[in-house]
């Protein structure tokens, strides 16, 4: 099947399929004489695996590790569990950071009069960083993380 059919069948966009090939997450597709990519059932199965792992929030590096474990029939389930538990810990850190941001914003919004006056603690906090928020930005996750 061509890339469009593989995309439709797997639920992974053609653009992402090309990207996953480029970064080595999936094997390069076979090519026709006219250089079109062709995919088989195993390729689509792998793409579905990748899509599901992405849906669960695993990083590309974690997916590489999971794919290697999936392909290794002699793997120990404890290795797979370790990847999952590490991911759960990351998710819990993100949740805590988002909850802290929510508390801070609720506090600031509660002190903003929301009227015609220009004074606003939300703007003041963004401009000056004056609120005591115990967080730092983690560029890997795009959210603040607790210090």
Number of strands: 4
Please, what is the average pLDDT? 90
Cα separation of the termini: 49 Å
Low-confidence stretches: 137-141
Give the number of helices: 6
Secondary-structure-derived class: mainly alpha
Question: So what's the overall shape?
Answer: elongated
Percent in strands: 5-15%
Strand order in the largest sheet = 1-2
| H and E string | HHEEHHHHEE
Radius of gyration over C-alpha positions, nearest whole angstrom = 22 Å
Largest sheet: number of strands, sense, barrel closure: 2 strands, antiparallel
Write the layout of secondary structure elements.
Layout: H1 3-10, H2 14-22, E1 30-31, E2 37-38, H3 41-55, H4 60-71, H5 77-110, H6 121-128, E3 135-138, E4 143-146
Antiparallel strand pairs: 1-2, 3-4
Question: Which tags fit this structure?
Answer:
147 residues, 4 strands, 6 helices, Multidrug-efflux Transporter Regulator, Chain: A, Domain 2, mainly alpha, 59% helix, two-stranded antiparallel ribbon, 2 domains
